[in-house]
Protein: ABC transporter ATP-binding protein
Organism: Oribacterium sinus
Amino acid sequence: MEPIISVRDLYKIFKIGDTEVYALNGLNFDIYQGEFIAIVGTSGSGKSTCLNMLAGLEKPSKGSITITGESIEKMNEKQLVAFRRMHVGFIFQSYNLIPFLNAMENVAMPLMFRGVSKEERNKKALEYLELMNIGKEANRSPNQMSGGQQQRVGIARALVIDPEIIFADEPTGNLDSHTTEEVLALMRNIVEKQRKTLIMVTHDPHIASWADRQLRVVDGRIVETVIRKESKIEEEILRENGAPPYTVVEKQQEGEAR
Ligand code: ADP
Ligand code: MG
Protein backbone atom coordinates (compact mmCIF):
# COMPACT_ATOMS: atom_id res chain seq x y z
CA MET A 1 0.00 0.00 0.00
CA GLU A 2 1.58 3.22 -1.22
CA PRO A 3 0.94 6.48 0.64
CA ILE A 4 -0.94 9.17 -1.27
CA ILE A 5 1.06 11.85 0.59
CA SER A 6 4.63 11.55 1.86
CA VAL A 7 6.33 14.29 3.84
CA ARG A 8 10.02 14.06 4.64
CA ASP A 9 12.15 16.30 6.80
CA LEU A 10 9.90 19.29 6.22
CA TYR A 11 10.97 22.68 7.56
CA LYS A 12 9.49 26.14 7.24
CA ILE A 13 11.53 28.92 8.74
CA PHE A 14 10.21 32.48 8.81
CA LYS A 15 12.77 35.23 9.28
CA ILE A 16 11.50 38.26 11.15
CA GLY A 17 14.36 40.71 11.51
CA ASP A 18 17.11 38.78 13.30
CA THR A 19 14.76 36.15 14.65
CA GLU A 20 14.02 32.82 12.99
CA VAL A 21 10.65 31.20 13.62
CA TYR A 22 10.61 27.45 13.00
CA ALA A 23 6.95 27.15 11.97
CA LEU A 24 7.65 23.57 10.83
CA ASN A 25 10.54 21.88 12.53
CA GLY A 26 11.25 18.59 10.77
CA LEU A 27 7.95 16.91 9.89
CA ASN A 28 7.84 13.30 8.69
CA PHE A 29 4.59 11.52 7.92
CA ASP A 30 2.69 9.46 5.35
CA ILE A 31 -1.02 9.62 4.58
CA TYR A 32 -2.96 6.84 2.84
CA GLN A 33 -5.88 7.08 0.48
CA GLY A 34 -9.17 7.01 2.36
CA GLU A 35 -7.85 8.40 5.62
CA PHE A 36 -9.48 11.25 7.49
CA ILE A 37 -6.51 12.97 9.11
CA ALA A 38 -6.64 15.73 11.71
CA ILE A 39 -3.66 17.98 12.25
CA VAL A 40 -4.32 19.23 15.75
CA GLY A 41 -2.48 21.69 17.97
CA THR A 42 -2.80 24.99 19.77
CA SER A 43 -2.70 28.33 17.97
CA GLY A 44 0.73 29.00 16.48
CA SER A 45 1.81 25.34 16.49
CA GLY A 46 2.22 25.28 12.69
CA LYS A 47 -1.00 23.63 11.51
CA SER A 48 -1.92 26.13 8.80
CA THR A 49 1.67 26.35 7.60
CA CYS A 50 1.68 22.57 7.26
CA LEU A 51 -1.56 22.55 5.27
CA ASN A 52 -0.36 25.38 3.05
CA MET A 53 2.79 23.38 2.23
CA LEU A 54 0.75 20.28 1.38
CA ALA A 55 -1.50 22.33 -0.87
CA GLY A 56 1.53 23.90 -2.56
CA LEU A 57 0.45 27.38 -1.47
CA GLU A 58 3.80 28.02 0.22
CA LYS A 59 7.28 26.70 -0.48
CA PRO A 60 9.09 24.72 2.21
CA SER A 61 12.46 25.97 3.48
CA LYS A 62 13.70 22.39 3.33
CA GLY A 63 12.35 18.89 2.81
CA SER A 64 10.09 17.08 0.36
CA ILE A 65 6.38 16.61 -0.20
CA THR A 66 5.23 13.87 -2.55
CA ILE A 67 1.56 13.76 -3.50
CA THR A 68 0.17 11.10 -5.85
CA GLY A 69 3.78 10.41 -6.87
CA GLU A 70 4.69 14.01 -7.72
CA SER A 71 7.21 16.19 -5.87
CA ILE A 72 5.18 19.30 -5.37
CA GLU A 73 8.00 21.34 -3.81
CA LYS A 74 9.72 21.23 -7.21
CA MET A 75 6.75 22.53 -9.19
CA ASN A 76 6.46 26.07 -10.48
CA GLU A 77 3.35 28.16 -9.93
CA LYS A 78 1.70 27.12 -13.19
CA GLN A 79 2.23 23.42 -12.49
CA LEU A 80 0.90 23.87 -8.96
CA VAL A 81 -2.29 25.51 -10.19
CA ALA A 82 -2.86 22.66 -12.63
CA PHE A 83 -2.06 20.12 -9.92
CA ARG A 84 -4.54 21.61 -7.47
CA ARG A 85 -7.30 21.76 -10.08
CA MET A 86 -6.78 18.09 -10.84
CA HIS A 87 -6.34 16.57 -7.40
CA VAL A 88 -7.36 18.89 -4.60
CA GLY A 89 -10.51 20.33 -3.03
CA PHE A 90 -10.49 23.05 -0.37
CA ILE A 91 -12.92 23.71 2.47
CA PHE A 92 -12.46 27.07 4.21
CA GLN A 93 -13.41 28.25 7.69
CA SER A 94 -15.13 31.32 6.24
CA TYR A 95 -16.82 29.27 3.44
CA ASN A 96 -15.51 31.68 0.74
CA LEU A 97 -18.69 31.48 -1.30
CA ILE A 98 -19.27 34.01 -4.07
CA PRO A 99 -22.06 36.28 -2.76
CA PHE A 100 -23.74 37.06 -6.09
CA LEU A 101 -24.01 33.42 -7.14
CA ASN A 102 -26.59 31.00 -5.78
CA ALA A 103 -25.67 27.72 -4.06
CA MET A 104 -25.79 25.68 -7.24
CA GLU A 105 -23.67 28.18 -9.19
CA ASN A 106 -21.11 28.29 -6.38
CA VAL A 107 -20.76 24.51 -6.43
CA ALA A 108 -20.63 24.44 -10.23
CA MET A 109 -17.84 27.04 -10.33
CA PRO A 110 -14.76 24.72 -10.15
CA LEU A 111 -16.09 22.73 -13.12
CA MET A 112 -15.75 25.79 -15.36
CA PHE A 113 -11.98 25.29 -15.33
CA ARG A 114 -12.53 21.83 -16.72
CA GLY A 115 -14.50 22.88 -19.75
CA VAL A 116 -17.68 21.14 -18.59
CA SER A 117 -20.87 22.42 -20.28
CA LYS A 118 -23.19 24.62 -18.23
CA GLU A 119 -25.97 22.06 -18.23
CA GLU A 120 -23.62 19.33 -17.04
CA ARG A 121 -22.08 21.64 -14.40
CA ASN A 122 -25.44 22.49 -12.89
CA LYS A 123 -26.52 18.86 -12.90
CA LYS A 124 -23.36 17.83 -11.08
CA ALA A 125 -23.68 20.72 -8.63
CA LEU A 126 -27.22 19.74 -7.78
CA GLU A 127 -26.14 16.12 -7.21
CA TYR A 128 -23.55 17.26 -4.69
CA LEU A 129 -25.93 19.64 -2.95
CA GLU A 130 -28.33 16.74 -2.56
CA LEU A 131 -25.51 14.61 -1.18
CA MET A 132 -25.04 17.34 1.44
CA ASN A 133 -28.80 17.33 2.14
CA ILE A 134 -29.31 20.89 0.87
CA GLY A 135 -30.70 20.26 -2.60
CA LYS A 136 -33.68 22.44 -1.67
CA GLU A 137 -31.42 25.47 -1.16
CA ALA A 138 -29.92 25.30 -4.65
CA ASN A 139 -31.37 28.67 -5.71
CA ARG A 140 -30.54 30.55 -2.54
CA SER A 141 -27.70 33.00 -2.34
CA PRO A 142 -25.16 32.65 0.50
CA ASN A 143 -26.69 35.47 2.58
CA GLN A 144 -30.02 33.62 2.60
CA MET A 145 -28.45 30.55 4.23
CA SER A 146 -27.32 29.64 7.74
CA GLY A 147 -23.63 29.07 8.48
CA GLY A 148 -24.15 25.33 8.48
CA GLN A 149 -25.89 25.46 5.09
CA GLN A 150 -23.14 27.66 3.66
CA GLN A 151 -20.49 25.24 4.82
CA ARG A 152 -22.38 22.35 3.21
CA VAL A 153 -22.27 24.34 -0.03
CA GLY A 154 -18.54 24.82 0.60
CA ILE A 155 -18.07 21.07 1.01
CA ALA A 156 -20.13 20.31 -2.09
CA ARG A 157 -17.95 22.75 -4.03
CA ALA A 158 -14.80 21.01 -2.78
CA LEU A 159 -16.15 17.60 -3.80
CA VAL A 160 -17.64 18.45 -7.19
CA ILE A 161 -14.36 18.00 -9.09
CA ASP A 162 -14.02 14.53 -7.53
CA PRO A 163 -10.61 15.31 -5.96
CA GLU A 164 -8.52 12.57 -4.36
CA ILE A 165 -7.54 14.92 -1.56
CA ILE A 166 -9.53 17.50 0.41
CA PHE A 167 -7.89 20.11 2.61
CA ALA A 168 -9.87 21.83 5.33
CA ASP A 169 -8.51 24.51 7.70
CA GLU A 170 -10.76 24.83 10.77
CA PRO A 171 -13.82 23.99 8.63
CA THR A 172 -16.24 24.21 11.54
CA GLY A 173 -14.60 27.23 13.16
CA ASN A 174 -17.60 29.49 12.53
CA LEU A 175 -20.32 26.96 13.42
CA ASP A 176 -22.16 26.27 16.67
CA SER A 177 -21.46 22.95 18.38
CA HIS A 178 -24.57 21.16 17.11
CA THR A 179 -23.97 22.19 13.48
CA THR A 180 -20.30 21.30 13.89
CA GLU A 181 -21.23 17.71 14.75
CA GLU A 182 -23.57 17.52 11.75
CA VAL A 183 -20.96 18.84 9.34
CA LEU A 184 -18.27 16.53 10.72
CA ALA A 185 -20.59 13.54 10.41
CA LEU A 186 -21.27 14.48 6.79
CA MET A 187 -17.59 14.87 6.01
CA ARG A 188 -16.68 11.54 7.59
CA ASN A 189 -19.50 9.83 5.75
CA ILE A 190 -18.32 11.13 2.36
CA VAL A 191 -14.71 10.22 3.07
CA GLU A 192 -15.73 6.67 3.90
CA LYS A 193 -18.19 6.22 1.04
CA GLN A 194 -16.08 7.82 -1.69
CA ARG A 195 -12.71 6.81 -0.26
CA LYS A 196 -11.48 10.37 -0.22
CA THR A 197 -8.46 11.55 1.70
CA LEU A 198 -9.38 14.41 4.03
CA ILE A 199 -6.82 16.47 5.87
CA MET A 200 -8.37 18.77 8.42
CA VAL A 201 -6.66 21.31 10.64
CA THR A 202 -8.17 22.12 14.03
CA HIS A 203 -7.15 23.46 17.44
CA ASP A 204 -10.02 21.55 19.08
CA PRO A 205 -9.21 18.05 20.42
CA HIS A 206 -12.87 17.03 20.32
CA ILE A 207 -13.22 17.95 16.65
CA ALA A 208 -9.93 16.18 15.93
CA SER A 209 -11.28 13.00 17.53
CA TRP A 210 -13.59 12.57 14.51
CA ALA A 211 -10.55 11.75 12.38
CA ASP A 212 -9.21 8.26 11.75
CA ARG A 213 -5.78 9.46 12.72
CA GLN A 214 -4.70 12.58 14.55
CA LEU A 215 -1.29 14.14 14.18
CA ARG A 216 -0.70 16.32 17.22
CA VAL A 217 1.61 19.21 16.50
CA VAL A 218 3.59 21.26 19.02
CA ASP A 219 6.07 23.90 17.88
CA GLY A 220 6.12 22.58 14.31
CA ARG A 221 6.68 18.96 15.29
CA ILE A 222 4.46 15.92 15.53
CA VAL A 223 4.53 14.88 19.16
CA GLU A 224 1.79 12.26 19.14
CA THR A 225 -0.23 10.12 16.73
CA VAL A 226 -3.66 8.98 17.82
CA ILE A 227 -5.66 6.32 15.98
CA ARG A 228 -9.43 6.25 16.26
CA LYS A 229 -10.73 3.02 17.74
CA GLU A 230 -12.51 0.77 15.24
CA SER A 231 -11.52 2.92 12.31
CA LYS A 232 -12.07 0.75 9.22
CA ILE A 233 -9.41 2.44 7.15
CA GLU A 234 -6.75 2.22 9.90
CA GLU A 235 -7.51 -1.49 10.31
CA GLU A 236 -7.20 -1.94 6.57
CA ILE A 237 -3.90 -0.04 6.40
CA LEU A 238 -2.55 -2.14 9.24
CA ARG A 239 -3.68 -5.37 7.58
CA GLU A 240 -2.23 -4.44 4.18
CA ASN A 241 1.07 -3.28 5.58
CA GLY A 242 1.45 -6.03 8.19
CA ALA A 243 2.76 -3.54 10.73
CA PRO A 244 1.89 0.06 11.57
CA PRO A 245 3.26 1.99 8.57
CA TYR A 246 3.36 5.16 10.63
CA THR A 247 5.33 5.83 13.75
CA VAL A 248 3.22 6.36 16.80
CA VAL A 249 5.32 9.07 18.35
CA GLU A 250 5.69 9.17 22.11
CA LYS A 251 4.05 12.10 23.76
CA GLN A 252 6.47 14.88 24.42
CA GLN A 253 6.10 17.61 27.00
CA GLU A 254 5.13 20.95 25.57
CA GLY A 255 8.04 23.36 25.58
CA GLU A 256 10.62 20.54 25.65
CA ALA A 257 13.98 21.47 24.12
CA ARG A 258 14.22 21.13 20.33
P1 ADP B 1 -1.48 27.58 13.49
O1 ADP B 1 -2.18 27.46 12.20
O2 ADP B 1 -1.23 26.28 14.18
O3 ADP B 1 -2.13 28.56 14.41
P2 ADP B 1 0.61 28.81 11.90
O4 ADP B 1 1.01 27.73 10.96
O5 ADP B 1 -0.26 29.86 11.37
O6 ADP B 1 -0.01 28.16 13.22
O7 ADP B 1 1.93 29.51 12.47
C1 ADP B 1 3.02 28.80 13.01
C2 ADP B 1 4.09 29.76 13.45
O8 ADP B 1 4.67 30.40 12.31
C3 ADP B 1 3.60 30.88 14.36
O9 ADP B 1 4.62 31.19 15.29
C4 ADP B 1 3.38 32.02 13.39
O10 ADP B 1 3.51 33.25 14.05
C5 ADP B 1 4.50 31.81 12.38
N1 ADP B 1 4.13 32.28 11.03
C6 ADP B 1 3.16 31.78 10.25
N2 ADP B 1 3.10 32.42 9.06
C7 ADP B 1 4.08 33.38 9.11
C8 ADP B 1 4.54 34.39 8.20
N3 ADP B 1 3.99 34.54 6.99
N4 ADP B 1 5.55 35.18 8.61
C9 ADP B 1 6.11 35.04 9.81
N5 ADP B 1 5.75 34.10 10.72
C10 ADP B 1 4.74 33.29 10.39
MG1 MG C 1 -4.08 28.32 11.58
In short: Residues 14, 16, 21, 23, 41, 43-49 surround adenosine-5'-diphosphate (ligand 1) (CB under 6 Å). The helical segments are 47-54, 77-87, 103-112, 118-131, 147-159, 177-194, 205-208, 232-241. The domain at 5-252 is CATH 3.40.50.300 (Rossmann fold). DSSP finds eight helices and ten strands in the chain.
